[in-house]
Amino acid sequence: MSDTQSFNFKAETKQLLNILIHSLYKDKEVFLRELLSNASDALNRIHFEMLTNQNVLDPEVELNIRITANKDERMLTIQDTGIGMTKDEIIENLGTIAQSGARNFIEATKDKDVDITQVIGQFGVGFYSVFMAADWVRVTSRSHKPRAKAVSWYATGEDNFEISAAEMKERGTKIEIKLKEDAAEFAEEYRINAIIKKHSDYIGFPIYVGESEEQANKQTSLWRTARNEITDEQYKDFYTQMTMEFEGPQHRIHAVTDAPVQLFTLLYIPNKAERGMFSQRKEDGLKLYSRNILIDEYNRDLLPEYLRFVQGVVDSEDLPLNVSRETVQSSGLMPRLKKIVTGQVMRELETLARKDAEKYTAFWEEFGIFLKQGIAAEPTETEKVQPLLRFKTNLNTEIWSSLDDYVERMKEEQKEIYYIIGDDPVSVLRSPHLDYFQSEGTEVLLLTDPMDSFMLVGLRKFKEYELKNVAQADVETSEASEKESEAEKIPEDEFSTLLEQFKETLGERITDVRASNRLSQSVARLVDSEDSLEPEMQRVYRYLGKDYEVPKKILELNPSHLILKRLLAENAGSDLQKEIIEQIYDSALLVEGLHPDPSSMAPRIQKLMEMLLSKDA
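Now predict its structure.
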């Protein structure tokens, strides 16, 4: 080409390009997204110029982007009718690397602990991702200024670029790309359309592919459309397209925020926690857009971990991006966005819980475990999550109750919220720890999910009420009940003998054996000594398999129970007596959910049956 000028990049440019291409971008296809994003920016700029300045080239031309491809030649062309560039502008814009202190960048990235994506924001080099797929690139541009002449920029990704005069009648920019052999797929129209649908579907200007006049992108984003203009069917169709889930969502949240930042959100709560077999969303995270351009397919910084089941889109006008658009530049904005989006979800869930208990129950049964995890993993979120928790209780086994519901039903003199932990809803109701509370008609939360033990590490108090494990709760028995049970008890001297037999048989597996004033229906229960780990932490250790050993506890016996009375009648130290004592202890462990090997009881139970049957014979 005539009048060609060659400009040398700085010596480090090739090294810098290698870093950009191999360290920042995960997929080659993002180069097309970057070029379409640049074209969109150019169209936005000319749109502004046309509104404020009538003296522009080709004012009647449609604002659009056209993509043509020749797969035989491995050529791809992207042309926009945007603001265009003069010679000086094309050198400044496409020669940015030469002007941006590449040496300083490379020096900064020598430290292995430095996150490249956090220090590269000042380099406007998204355009250069094209060299992942290109042997060479030619950019021809004509500025919107009426007297401006067309100019061409040519580079191969090496250490220099060339500038020359060009012929171009229309305003805008045309990018011609000679694709590498291993990037020939990007000259296929179906592939181009798929990338547009994934990354650039909601660019605010029409994108045409090939000779077709049919638009390849939707252009109008659902989340930026007024709610009263969207039907339920459109909301559902968008969810289905985004997730490929055949079941519609359980709930949706469509919100627009103008202050402190401009934010558009369209979020969905799926019907099921488990993704469907054909689900398109393989990871947790929201689709993050900036001005209708997808910059992150799975962003996990916009919601806390315990809301990771939420699907949808967040689009911000105020989002500063780094060069690759794959990660957000380090700034104080992301925490603010997270606070806004989290607040939207939490408020919507609170409203749902308040206005439609049936729908909220369906949500809780599917996603409640995530909220429990939030309290366990993020103690600072406890107060925010507490109102959304639901529990079943010993007095209301079929319905879910909030902590507020529990407090409203508390007895007048009750000062604590009681709970019991166990392995399943049926067995926990048989726990000896419940004997006293059942007889008094006192409500107790039933915690039978493995996550409950983890949750309790962070859930210590609700409003002014402490949460108390019934296994550790202090209770005051009435004088009348004391006198009534006194008459039924084993005499104290005989009971002392029985205690000694238990201590001798169980040895160091227990710290003590003593009489209980709490048991009415059960023969025994295990309680913690003062220096023991709390029951919740014992279970946590068990679930984690973290140096778990059966904890040594105090065995409390019911002096009024028929089994113990009959046990006294047995010969002291007999095999039958020892086996029954062992079984009482193992059964107590089982009820606590602490038995390391429940199946090991089967041989003993069989032996006990044989001994009892042979005795009767």
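Residues 98-102, 116-124 have pLDDT under 50 and may be disordered.
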